[in-house]
Each structure stands twice: as structure tokens, then as C-alpha cells.
Design goal:
- By secondary structure, the chain is of the alpha+beta class.
- The chain contains three helices and five strands; from the N terminus they run E-H-E-E-H-E-E-H.
- Helix content is 30%, strand content 37%.
- The chain has a five-stranded antiparallel β-sheet with strand order 4-1-3-2-5, with helices on one face.
- The longest helix is centred in the last third of the chain and has 16 residues.
- The relative contact order is 0.24.
Length: 135
């Protein structure tokens, strides 16, 4: 099985449907003996450019390990879901389990393994120490 990183963006009017969509895609991968290494809901974010006069969308990141057949089924599900504005699938060399840089923002949340409060404090501490250090 190969490793893939998948990002899809959902129409902002359909943000309430995102948890159901994530569950469906999760079942598609795990039902065919695949694994989800990282699943992050980045929430509603500004688009770099408008898509069909839409300026914001709901972003979701998934790092999965699956076979080509499962990936084809996911791709088909993305293409024929009107709520999904865009999707991107990138083949990775290894499984990525570390939180993404986007997870450092307070409104984002991981859906695979919640971080312990002390781990979150360690991740934020270096940035705040660097900002407090006079130059």
C-alpha cells in the first residue's frame, strides 16, 4: 500500500456536512484495510483566489495509506460531490503523523489523536519565547 496526502475544500454553505463527509471517507479507507495516519480539520479559511464567486471554504487534510482501488474510489467520491470545490492527492514516500503547520492555529483541530496539553504548550512555547526575546 502507498501513502497519500489528501486535501479537499468544501463549499462554506456545506460546512455542517463536513463531519459526515469525513466519516464516510474514513470508512472508505479503513473498510478496505487502509490506515489513516493524520486527519485534520482546518476549518473555514480564506481562499487564495475566488472559486465560483466564493471567497472562503472549509479545509480538511488527510494522510492515508491505501491501495490504488481505494484511492480511485475516494477520487470518484470527491469528483461527484457537489460540496467539494477542489481536492488534491499527493503521493508521499512515508506516513506523515506529525501535526501540520496549520495545526498551530487555535481554531484548527486534529481528528485522529488529540494532543496532550503539555505537548501543545511545548509546541507554542518556542515561538512565544522567540517573540519575547529582545534583539
Amino acid at each position: 500500500m502507498r501513502h497519500y496526502e489528501i486535501v479537499f475544500i468544501v463549499h462554506p454553505d456545506q460546512s455542517e456536512q463536513v463531519p459526515g463527509m469525513i466519516d464516510r471517507y474514513r470508512q472508505t479507507v479503513t473498510g478496505r484495510s487502509g490506515k489513516i495516519h493524520r486527519l485534520e480539520d482546518w476549518g473555514r479559511r480564506q481562499l487564495a483566489y475566488p472559486i465560483a464567486k466564493i471567497h472562503k471554504a472549509h479545509y480538511v487534510l488527510m494522510n492515508v495509506e491505501c491501495d490504488a482501488e481505494t484511492l480511485g474510489e475516494l477520487d470518484h467520491a470527491f469528483k461527484f460531490n457537489d460540496a467539494v470545490l477542489r481536492h488534491l492527492v499527493v503521493k508521499m514516500d512515508d506516513a506523515v503523523t506529525a501535526p501540520s503547520p496549520m495545526m498551530k492555529e487555535e481554531k484548527s483541530r486534529s481528528l485522529t489523536a488529540p494532543a496532550a496539553p503539555e505537548e501543545a504548550a511545548k509546541a507554542v512555547a518556542p515561538a512565544s519565547e522567540a517573540a519575547a526575546t529582545p534583539t
